[in-house]
Amino acid sequence: MNIDMEKLGLSDSFKEQSLSYPDLFIGRVISQFKGIYKAALKDGEILAEVLGKLRHEASSPLSFPAVGDFVMLDRNSNKSGNAIIHKILERKSVFIRKAAGTAHEAQIVAANIDTVFICMSLNNDFNLRRLERYISIAWDSGAIPVVVLTKSDLCENIAFRLKEVDSVAMGVDTLVTSSLGKDGISAILPYIKPGKTVAFIGSSGVGKSTLINRLAEKDLFATKELRNDDKGRHTTTRRELILLENGGAVIDTPGMREIGIESADLSKSFSDIDALSKECRFRDCKHEREPGCAVLKAVEDGVLDEQRLASYKKLQKEASYEGLNSKQIESKKLNAMFSEFGGMKNFKKNLKEKYKLER
Ligand code: GDP
Ligand code: ZN
């Protein structure tokens, strides 16, 4: 089977990066099971593992490939055993979560997602604080969030709910769906374009699988199973990246489903503090005791909660420890921040009002 790699997200930027490796083949990781990866290449699907050297030099779990990664492989078929992944191309977005039981070890859940649908049901699951948390997680990943309010058939005050959502999701598109009818995904479809990758997050039971299943009715990878010729046994990996018939892809990994559950402590959206930092006299202000620190001033003025600043610092430490402060993610966050606050001018006014509301 030939795979249309462009539809699968192979953009000019990845192509350009791949030019540095003329002897290798470009592929995209579509599933992962222990040390074995399944990648999609122009010529079909292939099993692969990570180059030993890469494995030994890996400084953190973030140096390993994840579903959604574009990687450079040493071969394009499994005729002579598993392919070897030599290089992970620079990610444009990445979802991480803390590995269970460890303080700092982060795990990559998925990479290179363009749009993430944050699903919240309009009945029991409706919770604005949680929504805010998911939006924050999405922006931090580098992906663009879209709010999907599900089960509209079970809600009688949709207009009111939409207003509430708007108060925490300013600048984020919000869709309303119901999977009862046939057109449950019609609102979502315009957001899934050839070459773009989407994912669904949100609490269990809100209707993510129902939406994904409907999208995936025409999944081009659906029934594929690969033979691991190296060891002479079959390896069936769960389908984790779904290539849709009319282009575009959906990433649905177990980790993706759990996002937002265990990362509750990374919960709050800190875009307000980020914005304040821009007002600090020093660009690298740590908000400890520097003169002209706008963040400390906000605490002093009672506009910003001290506890909140402490959690922010904690999060910053973790983020820099993991080396996740890529320029790209930063700039996306900045954009998000400004659109969320309707520009810097309105920011202070909004911030004050926001805190008044929360107290
Ligand atoms: P997930 O855990 O987020 O993947 O949620 P599921 O897709 O498994 O859905 C959980 C339950 O909600 C199932 O029983 C679905 O049939 C039901 N459900 C999903 N979407 C809708 C909807 O739009 N309206 C109603 N009434 N039920 C829905
Ligand atoms: Zn400062």
Give structural notes.
The longest helix has 16 residues. This protein has a 6-stranded mixed beta sheet. Strand 14 and strand 15 form a beta hairpin. It is 31% helix and 21% strand. The chain has 11 helices and 15 strands. The protein is α/β, with parallel strands linked by helices and 359 residues long. Bound molecules: guanosine-5'-diphosphate (GDP) and zinc ion. Guanosine-5'-diphosphate (GDP) binds next to helix 5. Zinc ion binds next to helix 8.
Low-confidence runs of at least 5 consecutive residues? 223-237, 262-268, 319-352, 354-359
Bound molecules: guanosine-5'-diphosphate, zinc ion
> How many distinct helices?
11
Instruction: State the secondary-structure class.
Output: alpha/beta
Task: List the topology elements.
Elements: H1 12-18, E1 25-33, E2 36-41, E3 44-50, H2 52-57, E4 70-73, E5 83-88, E6 94-98, E7 106-111, E8 115-121, H3 128-141, E9 144-150, H4 158-168, E10 174-176, E11 197-201, H5 208-215, E12 226-228, E13 233-235, E14 241-243, E15 249-251, H6 254-258, H7 271-277, H8 294-300, H9 306-321, H10 327-340, H11 344-358
Parallel strand pairs: 3-5, 8-9, 8-11, 9-10, 11-15
Antiparallel strand pairs: 1-2, 1-4, 2-3, 4-5, 6-7, 12-13, 14-15
Helix pairs in contact: 7-10
Guanosine-5'-diphosphate binds next to helix 5.
Name some characteristics of this structure:
6-stranded mixed β-sheet, binds guanosine-5'-diphosphate, binds zinc ion
Task: Quickly describe the structure.
The chain is 31% helix and 21% strand.
